[in-house]
Amino acid sequence: MAGHDFMDYANGQGGSDACTDMSDPDNAGLSACLASGEHGISLAQVYQQFCTSVSLADFLVIAAEAVMMSTRARHQAAVSAPSLDLKSSFRYGRTTAQTCGFAEGRLPNPERGCDAVQETFLDGMGLDWTEAAALMAVHTLGRAQVSNSGYHGWWSDPENSRRFNNDYFVSLLAKGWVPERSISGNTAKNQWERSDIGRDTTFDGHEMMLNTDMCLVYRETGPNGGPVLADQHTCCAWLASPEIRGAVASNGGEYCGGAPGPDPRQERQKCCGPQQGDCGDERNPTGPAQQAVRNFATDEAVWLEAFVRAWTKAVENGHTGLKSLGQCPTTSTTSSMPSSSSSSSSPGSSSTSSAGASSSTEAASSPSSTSDAGSSSPSSTSNSETQTPDLTSSSGCATWDFAGPRLILICSLGMLRRLL
């Protein structure tokens, strides 16, 4: 949702302004998240009940950051990994736009590969290739559905798609990919599907990449090497790099077409074709962000640093006079946290599923939480006397108070309980 909101920025128009044309086919499926409700909860419900002290434009950024922080915490709980800090860079004061007719056609068309990435992320949003690649790691979370975008599958495997990590980059480099044309019979929709021995062959486990993903790393070799496009190639892209092979080992990824062998090139030819330059030289990829992708695949800290930089630019484009959290007014106030046992009208209520319990645990274990907040539940923090940003202030600073997990408890508890 936040990404579709800010990707329309160009020439001083658009950006994170909470204006999204739901009739635009590029935004199919977003209305369920924002207004209609998905899994029994909608962003609009959460915003109206808990977060009107900030603009809707600010809230959509906050909600996205809450999901990334929560799913990053899930990843950190599984492995030793660097934390994600979005609090330090967050600034508030965005204006919600009422109309945005100019936005039509500004989102990148996946079929066009890096030409579309260049137009949207570099020419429009002012990012460089390293930042564009870092930002595209949001594809790690979630999946594409034919009913919405016309594409089908996970950018990462289903398990890693619940964790905000660097698996997107590892997958690009260390898994085999072959063209998958005319998705569900639509000749205008083409993608890449995982082809190596570690793939999940079930419908629900299907892994894929778009041309806009693959192009970050791969181009045809030669002085006039063109783009790698799914509707024009019969090969897969795969990098026989020792450090990347090691990074993908835990995901079950192996050489394209079969198990690792003494001759990597011979293994690659089983599904990539006999020419050394098919989909680019596997040892020396020439895509515009290939070095950044390789760095991100092997070092999460390097990726997170670039991601925060890119994310901050993306969500602040088009806004002036934004204020940091250090400028929030504070007052001693009695805060009322939404309780998990509150009435059914509360977006965060009546969820007793294991996913709900897991989400509240992750929220409490957010790396930016204080020790006493870490042991708190929504009900136990009710009516507590605490020093917090002023809830009555027009700035609405309380919405991004990371002294305790108030961001998730106030603004995103219901969403996280149902969606994660």
From TrEMBL:
<feature type="region of interest" description="Disordered">
    <location>
        <begin position="320"/>
        <end position="395"/>
    </location>
</feature>
<dbReference type="InterPro" id="IPR019793">
    <property type="entry name" value="Peroxidases_heam-ligand_BS"/>
</dbReference>
<keyword id="KW-0560">Oxidoreductase</keyword>
<dbReference type="InterPro" id="IPR002016">
    <property type="entry name" value="Haem_peroxidase"/>
</dbReference>
<dbReference type="GO" id="GO:0042744">
    <property type="term" value="P:hydrogen peroxide catabolic process"/>
</dbReference>
<feature type="compositionally biased region" description="Polar residues">
    <location>
        <begin position="385"/>
        <end position="395"/>
    </location>
</feature>
<keyword id="KW-0479">Metal-binding</keyword>
<dbReference type="Pfam" id="PF00141">
    <property type="entry name" value="peroxidase"/>
</dbReference>
<dbReference type="GO" id="GO:0004601">
    <property type="term" value="F:peroxidase activity"/>
</dbReference>
<dbReference type="InterPro" id="IPR044831">
    <property type="entry name" value="Ccp1-like"/>
</dbReference>
<dbReference type="GO" id="GO:0020037">
    <property type="term" value="F:heme binding"/>
</dbReference>
<dbReference type="GO" id="GO:0046872">
    <property type="term" value="F:metal ion binding"/>
</dbReference>
<dbReference type="GO" id="GO:0000302">
    <property type="term" value="P:response to reactive oxygen species"/>
</dbReference>
<protein>
    <recommendedName>
        <fullName>Plant heme peroxidase family profile domain-containing protein</fullName>
    </recommendedName>
</protein>
<keyword id="KW-0408">Iron</keyword>
<feature type="compositionally biased region" description="Low complexity">
    <location>
        <begin position="329"/>
        <end position="384"/>
    </location>
</feature>
<feature type="domain" description="Plant heme peroxidase family profile">
    <location>
        <begin position="54"/>
        <end position="332"/>
    </location>
</feature>
<feature type="region of interest" description="Disordered">
    <location>
        <begin position="259"/>
        <end position="288"/>
    </location>
</feature>
<keyword id="KW-0349">Heme</keyword>
<keyword id="KW-0575">Peroxidase</keyword>
<comment type="similarity">
    <text>Belongs to the peroxidase family.</text>
</comment>
<dbReference type="InterPro" id="IPR010255">
    <property type="entry name" value="Haem_peroxidase_sf"/>
</dbReference>
<dbReference type="GO" id="GO:0034599">
    <property type="term" value="P:cellular response to oxidative stress"/>
</dbReference>
